[in-house]
Automatic annotation (TrEMBL):
Residues 85-94 have a biased composition (Low complexity). This is Membrane protein. Residues 76-105 are annotated as: Disordered. GO terms for molecular function: DNA binding; restriction endodeoxyribonuclease activity. It comes from Streptomyces griseoflavus Tu4000. Residues 110-221 form the Restriction endonuclease type IV Mrr domain. The lineage of its organism: Bacteria, Bacillati, Actinomycetota, Actinomycetes, Kitasatosporales. One of its GO terms (biological process) is DNA restriction-modification system. Gene3D superfamilies: 3.40.1350.10. SUPFAM superfamilies: Restriction endonuclease-like (SSF52980). The chain crosses the membrane at residues 31-47. Keywords: Membrane, Transmembrane, Transmembrane helix.
Amino acid sequence: MFFGLLATALVAAGFAVRALAGVVQRRPEWVVVLVCVALAGALAYGRRRRRLSAARLARGATEVLEEATATALDALDVPPPAPSAAPSAGPTTAEPIPPAGDPRFLDHEALTPEEFEEAIAALCVRDGCSEVEVVGGAGDLGADVVALSPEGRRVVIQCKRYSDDNKVGSQDLQRFGGTCFTVHGADVALVVTTSDFTAPAEEYAEQCGIVCVNGAALLAWSDGLAPGPWAAGA
């Protein structure tokens, strides 16, 4: 069918060319008309192609513009990054540097018995006692630190640096109670320990008027949260 149609078209084109040739021989002015028609057709075809190209360019530009607009809208939807905190230009408060030997910054449980006596004497000096002496040692008869309180009373202190599981017993209090008032002339007798007291020891101390300072009370005293323990024996 294709070759038949092609042959028919070629035959028709041949007849058309013969007819045009005859017309051109009889009337030469038709040559100019045919040339003008051909040129007009070529120009029309060229303009149509240019219009199609311009339309394609316009469509392409429109698509690019739409993509750019969508990208900008997406960027607007993204929340801006949080600003980083600027370093404060204000003054900062430095931690206080404790003076050497300040009893507020001592770990009493880590001290030796001699160092513990020195630390208790330093607390007495800090809180206004005068004539503070460390007299502990062989033959001290139970007195480790002696001092005069701010009110002028004689304070006699026995220091017991014990571990938490070793409490001060009643025998310790009895030995100290036998000498603190009669031998050392105490107005206020104190027993200071890093641990605690047994119930019989506290009973005996209450009967004899001895002030017991356990680990918790010592911590409050050294931190300045409680007055000097000699005030309890006034």
